[in-house]
Amino acid sequence: MSLSPYVPIIGLFALAAFFALFSVAAARFAGPRRYNRAKLEAYECGIEPSPQPVGGGRFPIKFYLTAMLFIVFDIEIIFLYPWAVSFDMLGLFGFVEMVLFIVAVFVAYAYVWRRGGLDWD
Amino acid sequence: MGGLSYLAQDPTLQDFGKDPWWLVLIKLVAAFVFAVLATLLGVWFERRVVARMAQRPGLNQIGPFGLLQTLADGIKMAFKEDILPKSADKVVYFFAPTISTICAVTALSVVPFGPMVSIFGERTPLQVTDVSVAVLVLLACSSMGVYGIVLGGWASGSTYPLLGGLRSSAQMISYEVAMGLSIVAVFMTAGTMSTSGIVSQQADGTRLNLFGVVDLPAPGWYAILLLPSFIIFFISTVGETNRAPFDLPEAESELVAGFMTEYSSLKFALFMLSEYVAMVTMSAVTTTLFLGGWRAPWPITLWEGANSGWWPLLWFMGKVIGLVFIFIWLRGTLPRLRYDQFMRLGWKVLLPINLVWILVLAGIRTLQQEDVSDSYRYSFIAGAVLVVLLVTLLWPSKKRPPQRTLQEKVNRRPAGSFPLPPMDLQVPPSPRTRRAVAEREPANVGAGQRPGAGQPGDAGTGHDEKEV
After folding, report:
1. Rounded to whole angstroms, how far apart are CA atoms A20 and B99?
2. Which among B24, B339, B344 is the nearest to A11, CB-wise?
3. ipTM for the assembly
4. Which domains does chain A have, with CATH numbers?
5. How does it assemble (chain B) (predicted)?
């Protein structure tokens, strides 16, 4: 009997999941439990923790922008992969097509750069 | 020592998925044990090496050379209290470290450790499995690892972990762009995405024949053929694994321990485990993609049997340990980057260099193809030169505004504007003080003269001169 080559990936996933869940669960029982009010507070170097707003609160917009840019460029990379794998078969046509594609993305990239989307502060 | 004898050992995609179930199980357990051992020894190795770099003896108490120190730490951690902070999101807090660990370990499933070997009479590749999109599996695992970190930071319900988690996720996705792009060159050269295929494509390099005497086979390692890709890939793996000098999510001086701040006991241990497994996995992936995988480096290949049997496991481990050493060396040497410098490096340096390099490589490879006629070739080169010229012409020049002295700045001001105070401002004493000082002047002579104090007119005159 032989297994599909994808099965071992799921197998290792399951093995790792079992190990991780087991250790997280075991830690609940193996360790001591001594109640202490201060211990359960959020750690802020010993001062009273600042109250967390309901629903997670706000965070700097730059993180959001970075995630958005990531999606744009990650999709570009995903488009490049099949082209790169079959590069030798595509020849000149494939090259010209990809130059046009990369130039188009480069325009967007230059725009983002110029508008300060890549500056952190 | 012909190329064919190497290739005979190379597994192809058809060799995978033929193992009986018990062999799959053995391989799975072996890969998992490798991950755990890599953590235990990796922590030990790192602490020893960093200690040596800092002129300290390092771990030497538990076990020979302190080898068992990490194991002892792990056992101790299991018997520590598992704290669940009051403000934490209970379910997510529980699952975040497991996500990190699972992703780090699963990536090992497609790493080729060696060629075809025989285990209990079964001929099988020394690799858990390989699929035609193996590198995508690796990328997927490394990007899914972000979830463990960002969720762990968010679920802690505390300020430092939240910021650490956000930073970490922004960092990892930024460097994933650079990493993903640098692999494009490898795909282009290898023509495949399967890891074993990429290793076998690096088998033969060009041969350097020196004076007809020494036949020096240059390795077909992509680290040499695609040097820019290799450098960018390695830099981005350091960023991707949150290692120094890019360990901003765990910058102690700013964020305590980053996303791990609220974690204790075995949950903390799992985060440590995933960090070290990710480091070793990334080294293994770098070895596979750029350093010829399990294939022996040049002087060893003079020996016929170097690339057969179980020996390649040794070369593979040697390369991985070498890369891990470089990771540690970086940590021992370089100071941490500032966050904006770090993001600038990823987005403004690595990304454009990568894109241009891919275009250059694609152009060169297209020119090398046989069926391209000469006229095409020349128009290509002319086009490339034209583009380079255009870019140089249109490049926005960065002219620094001229640094003027204060006097020049003052002179440039329109007439009648408000007088600019001098940089070395000495407030002229008020008329009343001037009078008082003048009256007390004789008494002050013996008490030592402060510069400028005795001549009240000086500061005022200097100021007057600068006025327009």
Report:
1. 8
2. B24
3. 0.85
4. 7-114 (1.20.58.1610)
5. NDH-1 is composed of 14 different subunits. Subunits NuoA, H, J, K, L, M, N constitute the membrane sector of the complex.
